[in-house]
Design goal:
Elements (H helix, E strand, L loop, with lengths): L2 H26 L4 H20 L3 H18 L7 H19 L6 H17 L28 E9 L10 H9 L2 E8 L17 E8 L3 H7 L7 E10 L2 H4 L15 H7 L16 H28 L2 H24 L1 E3 L1 H5 L1 H12 L3 E6 L4 E3 H22 L3 H6 L6 E10 L2 E8 L6 H10 L11 H6 L22 H10 L3 E7 L3 E9 L4 E9 L2 E6 L3 E8 H9 L4 E4 L2 E7 H4 L9 E9 L2 E7 L1 E9 L13 E6 L5 E5 L1 H6 L1
Parallel strand pairs: 6-8, 13-21, 16-18
Antiparallel strand pairs: 1-3, 1-4, 2-3, 5-7, 8-9, 9-11, 10-11, 12-13, 12-19, 14-17, 15-16, 17-18, 20-21
Helix pairs in contact: 1-2, 1-4, 2-3, 3-4, 3-5, 4-5, 10-11, 13-14, 14-18
């Protein structure tokens, strides 16, 4: 497959997402013809471009679905839930056809034929060809209203300056208009600059067009369907051969006079806010990853240069090192921003999931979102989808009650699930909140005792009881269903989020609902870390979780050892601490005065005792390979300026160990 076909498949994925979003919105507001237009345009583009790049099966199938929605546009078919269901299934079938590496097999073609047959059955009074294109509106017999009206339209067409650079040619669009009927075109050249200032890649013309046709307004809009976001377009009917004749309005010849009056045209032109002509370029993910890797190497070299300059104390060399540090920092931020995507596109994919599962379970559930503009690294977003799917499925199955039960409890019949995202320092907080039955601590305790996770007499706080939900194999489902009850549950979610260096927090109120909060880093490639030492070993702690550093003397440590405790009093706040020397069996060269790095971990404060705190460090994360696969509390490594290796600690895993 050539590059153009690969590019089309990427664009087709975006179009299919747009199609699904528009269909789900159309189900809620079936009278919105703008949404019908969005559905039609998405399918029209897939059909036309698919045929161009050799996806004949997808193009042919999409044509039938497009024809059905052409009748919806003309008001001959009403939007209904069965039609939306069938079109969503057709959308999935189109996606399957586009993913094929070769021709469609007989099974897929049969599935497509079955869907087309169901579509035809929904079309009113389909003609012999079964397309329904000769049909009249539902409930209305054929009469004079079905005779095509000859209408004269006035069209104002002003391309944005960048339209030519998108590969579109206005002349071809005008030729298409001429095929629709009698067409008179006047080009206005007042905006063309002097030759010295003229950019041959820019379009400066404005066309005022008078078109008399019996093809209808939708046929005209279809001509401009590929450039509607790259131009100002105003379409006004000025003469109807039936309506205007009855009202004794002037014939088309009398409305052509304004075509030569450029100033009048400019005054009558409807001003639209011109969209920013920001050029975009599709780049393979592998190339972006390679760029980020090279930037990471540059950051490492920059650290070596800064260390060398500091050691020699040469003013000019120090100045150069500082300039390189600033440039590498800016380059790092820009390179990382290339991989940042808005999470809203991921949120929108769950609307279909909620719709289908709520219908399957006979529940009414509304999905709402906020903070969709929040950006996350593409790698993080890709690995986040599965945990979010599991959490939402749990909310639908375990959380949201049936409509009858909700009414008895004084709740609205329709439940709600809210997805939100927001920045919090170097992290992003994603919350999944439902207004369902919540979690009953007593049921959790009973299940935990049955599974021997706790003893019957264990005294646990409400927060500790909720944490039992994350135990491997834990489930409160009474029976196994397609959604839950198989013991593969929240422990998988927690593990996957931990693999992203994130945290999971659970809050629930019985009868009110449940909220899950995922705390995730913005990126997994380069982080700001705190460089510390243990003897002659270097370690990196995530700087985003560090709250403060305090001193800890050997005498105070000895006092705590005698009392068999490891707690530090910091301004009246009792903070437990962990001696990393003990964790890693380091006994030599222990200093008299050590440092405690106080970090926020799993919602609480914990101190990590180290020998020395060197300072912040731009950390390029490197995989540590299979040799360290058993070291669960080490998430990676980085190379320091002098060539030494520093291990990156996963503080969550340190606490578990």
């Amino acid at each position: 497959m050539d590059i153009s076909a690969d590019t089309f498949k990427e664009e087709a994925c975006d179009l299919l997402e747009e199609l699904e979003t528009a269909l789900l919105e159309l189900e809620e507001t079936p009278e919105d013809m703008d949404l019908v237009g969005r559905v039609f345009r998405a399918m029209h583009t897939i059909k036309g471009s698919g045929a161009m790049f050799g996806f004949d099966a997808a193009s042919a199938f999409t044509h039938h679905v497009e024809s059905a929605f052409d009748l919806v546009r003309d008001g001959k078919v009403a939007v209904s839930k069965p039609l939306i269901n069938l079109t969503l299934t057709a959308r999935d079938h189109i996606s399957t056809l586009l993913d094929l590496d070769g021709p469609a097999d007989d099974g897929l073609l049969a599935q497509g034929d079955a869907l087309i047959k169901k579509l035809r059955e929904m079309m009113p009074d389909a003609g012999e060809n079964g397309t329904g294109q000769d049909a009249s509106p539902l409930g209305e017999p054929n009469d004079a209203r079905d005779i095509p009206a000859v209408v004269t339209f006035r069209i104002w067409f002003k391309p944005f300056a960048h339209l030519l650079s998108t590969g579109n040619n206005p002349r071809l669009l005008l030729d298409e208009l001429r095929e629709l009927g009698q067409c008179s075109v006047v080009a206005h050249t007042g905006d063309i600059p002097d030759l010295e200032s003229l950019d041959p890649r820019s379009c400066y013309l404005l066309w005022d067009i008078l078109l008399t046709t019996d093809k209808g307004e939708n046929a005209i809009k279809d001509v401009f369907i590929f450039v509607e976001d790259d131009c100002e377009l105003v379409l006004e009917p000025v003469y109807d051969d039936r309506k205007d004749e009855a009202e004794h309005k002037p014939p088309p010849s009398d409305v052509r006079a304004p075509l030569t009056e450029q100033e009048q045209i400019k005054q009558q032109l409807r001003q639209k806010k011109e969209k920013a002509a920001a050029a975009s370029l599709r780049v393979p993910v592998d190339k972006l990853n390679q760029l980020v890797a090279l930037v990471g190497e540059l950051v490492t070299v920059q650290a070596r240069l800064s260390r060398h300059a500091a050691g020699h104390k040469h003013p000019e060399l120090v100045s150069i090192a500082e300039d390189v540090e600033m440039l590498s920092s800016d380059l790092r931020d820009n390179a990382m921003s290339l991989r940042m995507l808005e999470i809203g596109s991921t949120f929108s994919t769950f609307r279909r999931l909620v719709r289908d599962l709520s219908d399957e379970q006979g529940k009414a559930i509304e999905l709402t979102t906020s903070g969709g503009e929040t950006e996350l690294d593409k790698t993080v977003i890709e690995q986040l989808k599965d945990p979010l799917v599991h959490i939402i499925r749990n909310s639908i199955d375990h959380g949201i009650e049936a409509p009858g039960i909700r009414k008895e409890q004084g709740k609205p019949p329709a439940g709600s699930i809210h997805l939100s995202a927001e920045h919090s320092g170097a992290n992003v907080l994603i919350r999944i909140k439902d207004d369902g039955r919540g979690i009953d601590p007593e049921i959790i305790r009973e299940k935990a005792v049955q599974k021997e996770l706790i003893l019957p007499g264990d005294d646990l706080t409400p927060k500790q009881i909720l944490q039992l939900v994350f135990a491997p194999g834990f489930s409160t489902a009474a029976q196994v269903t397609d959604l839950s009850g198989r013991g593969v549950g929240m422990d998988v979610v927690k593990r996957k989020i931990a693999n992203l260096n994130g945290e999971v927090a659970l809050e629930s109120v019985k009868g009110k609902g449940t909220t899950l909060t995922l705390k995730l880093p913005l990126t997994l490639a380069i982080i700001d870390g705190l460089l510390v030492t243990l003897a002659d070993n270097y370690f990196i702690l995530p700087l985003s979780s560090v709250e403060e550093c305090v001193e800890l003397s050997m005498s105070e440590q000895n006092k705590n050892r005698k009392k068999n405790r490891q707690i530090l009093n910091i301004r009246g706040d009792m903070v437990p601490y962990i001696r990393l020397r003990d964790e890693y069996g380091i006994t030599r060269d222990e200093p008299e005065l050590q440092q405690v790095v106080v970090m926020r971990v799993n919602g609480g404060r914990t101190g990590f005792v180290v020998d020395n705190v060197i300072g912040s460090h731009q950390t390029v994360i490197k995989n540590i390979g299979n040799a360290f696969r058993q070291a669960r509390d080490i998430s990676g490594a980085t190379i320091l300026g002098d060539g030494r290796v520093a291990l990156i600690l996963d503080v969550n895993k340190v606490l578990e160990v």
